Amino acid sequence: MLSDVGRVRTLNEDAVAFVMPAGDATTDDKDSLLLVADGMGGHAAGEVASALASEVVRRVFFSLTGEAPDLLRNAFDAANEAILDYGQQHPESAGLGTTCTALAVRGGRVWLAHVGDSRAYLLRDGALTQLSQDQTLVAKMVRDGDMTAEEARISIHSNIILQALGTKPDVEPEIWTEGLAIAPGDAIILCTDGLHGLVSDEVIAEIAGRLAPGDACAALIQKALDAGGHDNVSVGVFRLSSTGETPRDRTSTETRQIKAFDAPTGDTDDVSRATRRLPAFARQP
Question: What is the mean pLDDT of residues 137-157?
Answer without folding.
Answer: 78
